[in-house]
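Bench notes, afternoon.
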Amino acid sequence: MDFSKHDARSAAETPTPMLVLDQRTGKPILDGKKKCAVLVRGASSRSAQARLRAEEAARQKAASAKRGAHKRGKNEEDDLTKDLQASMIRSAKTFIAGFENIQRPDPETKELRDLTVSDDDIMWFLDLNMVSVPHLLRIGNDPEQEEDEDDDEYEARLAEHKAKWLSPSFAQQVIDHAREDDNFWGNRQQTEAARPLRRLSPQHAGKIKADPA
């Protein structure tokens, strides 16, 4: 059997559009009737992983250079929020491959122009809103099934937990899209023959659904 059809990492190399949602309402942001989107590569792609390693190496080098120069004080909570914001932006930046129907005033001419994939434009976009700590805390904290709770009830409660809008920032939206392999499977014209392994056992299928994306 040709297992290349299971190559999720290669599929994740081709960017897919992510609709940008209003952080306050969770609704798609529109430009008239056109939807505003970011073209995102998958987190499992080899190119994205290489960028993440390079970013982490640069971060560690910078941190090492100033280690001991900064001491947390009364503004520790603000510092932690800034650190989270910087971390989210740094991660999200590695996945962005383009923009659709998103513009900004040019820093020099002040005229509106389309966003490019320059570092300046990407960083400007990702820093338009702050990281949502409640959304961040939800990742990896799915509720467990109660002893007296049947599967249907648990699945409904889990779906409600995942669907609740917790105001993720643009950076968090990009990261969430990039981490979900299902957003990229269509890039390799997958057949349903690749799916049954996830449905062989009801217990196994339930565990997969309960695992964080």
